[in-house]
Sequence to fold (600 residues):
Amino acid sequence: MAQLFTKDTQAIFWNNNASAIQRMLDYDYTIKRKTPSVAAIVAPTADAKFQKFFWGPDEIMIPLYKTTAEAKAAQPQADVLLNFASFRTAYDVTMEALELGGFSCIMITAEGIPERLARKMNQTARDAGVIVIGPATVGGIAPGAFKIANVGGTIENIVNSKLHRCGSCGLVTRSGGLFNELSNIISINADGIAEGVAIGGDRFVGSVFIDNLLRMQENPDVKYMLLLGEVGGIEEYKVIEAIKDGRITKPVIGWCIGTIAKHYSAGVQFGHAGASANAERETADAKNKAMAEAGIHVPASFNDLPATIKRVYESLNIAPIAEPEMNVCPKVRRSKQFICTISDDRGDEATYAGFPISSVALPSTGKGIGDVISLLWFKKQYPKWATDFIETVVKTVADHGPAVSGAHNAKVTARAGKSVVESLVTGLLTIGPRFGGAIDGAAEHFKYADDNNMTPAEFLNHMKKLGIPIPGIGHRIKSLKNPDLRVKGLMDYAAEFFPATPLLDYARTVEALTTSKKENLILNVDGTIGILMVDMWRALGYSEEEINEFISSGTLNAFFIVGRSIGFIGHVLDEKRLAMPMYRHPMDDILYDVQMAEEI
Ligand code: ACO
Ligand code: LMR
Fold:
């Protein structure tokens, strides 16, 4: 791999570090990336499914996942892991990602991972061919393509340091702070950097100087390289070897900081865990001397580094880089309060999931209410067998006469002089676990039983323990002797048009058992709808997780709500048409069993 990152590189960001992510997205917008560089965020404790971020003046949603595995499964193209876990968790997160596979680069920001673990982690990554940047680093950047988190600082700083587009220096440092400083120096004295990595300040880091420089040697954008080492360790000598044996041929500028150490009487430990010389060879002076002897351009002091950069850069006669057009992120941005993912009224014609209303509403389109529901509820155009099923459900549950609880309530309310909407709502509020609203529960429990390979007897037992009647089983007036023909209609439709009905097949074995106990314990209309909807979604290719989410969000009862609204409105209009007086329930239909005051 000659280039660490490209303009298509996407990352999974472990830990919802919103300000760092926003900086990445501001960078993306500025350099006119097409896709956000963060494809997913792993936020183990968040319940939300996404987080909003600014994308220039607009906002986008980045999905949140609880685990790296889920994030990777959903965004397999994201092959960089930005591991922002704490030092306690960072090792496990990296090892899990290495186990999962599919990552080309893992950046670890935490400082202080125990050295034993860091060595094991780095070796596992090396064996797997995965580049590790860090631990204890701000990361790296491929200017004009992909920037890790906070590298380069604010967007103004980035543009000032020419980090918004590809230059010609390959930069490798240990320190993140000096990385930013050097980017700036290189932008002033040369044309900026082509790729830069701060390898991290811990004693045991993943990719070391030589790994990065060898890659840069292969990267055609890199014309020369700058290595900023520091006191401690022997990594610089590996670079010297590579120059000597011809693996590195591009010009290298080098400097090791920490030359001041000799002015102290005892060994000095600088800020980084690795920045301490354990032998003469590890001192900054020794390394600077060895680098110079190997032909590396080593300035006389850090202060002379800018002039060295200028000299080497100018000697290469690199053609000037055309400045690309950039987007400008607005200074003031307002976060939007509401999100809509189903319809859009901003154009000439409003759309349902992208379909102009006329393309689904007019009879000539051949589309029906099933299509409208599939677009507005599921943001998909379902195939005809599925939209026809949805329509069949809506029509089937539209009404079941005036005696059922919801219709009765709607009628009583209408007769109290209330409006259509008030009376309708009263009827709708009756829908629940016993009446019409057992569809979600039926789908949930039957699916659970089938998923867990329960026999009908085990399922009944399980529900008994839960202490709830099986949703979708039983009817007040329908029974084996007086079968519910609506149920037959739905089952006949499914038998003819569904690719398969495994959950219904299972539910019928349960029904055989319940009706053997009591003949009205049939699979009722709610149960049949709930179970067949699961079969429909499975046939449409939804994952079990998506189906479970439909169930838990109350999607299934909504089919009854839509259908029965038609009937309730009919009953309310009927009352109004008949100008029925206020209803009072006959007292002889009520058993009064009230104690006398003196008995209390
Ligand atoms: N699962 C297990 N046992 C049941 C169930 C059930 N779903 N429903 C009734 N039983 C049992 C009762 O435990 C009771 O047993 P017991 O005689 O040993 O005490 C017996 O059957 C009679 O119970 P009731 O509540 O009197 O039955 P009823 O016929 O009045 O109930 C009802 C009808 C409310 C629909 C009931 O079957 C039920 O709650 N079912 C689950 C909810 C449901 O599916 N509702 C939707 C109905 S369809 C619609 O509204 C559009
Ligand atoms: C309905 O559809 O409303 C019914 O199945 C309930 C009932 O009591 O008939």
Q: What stands out?
A: The pocket of acetyl coenzyme *A (ligand 1) is lined by residues 434-436, 438, 469-476, 518, 520-521, 524-527 (CB under 6 Å).
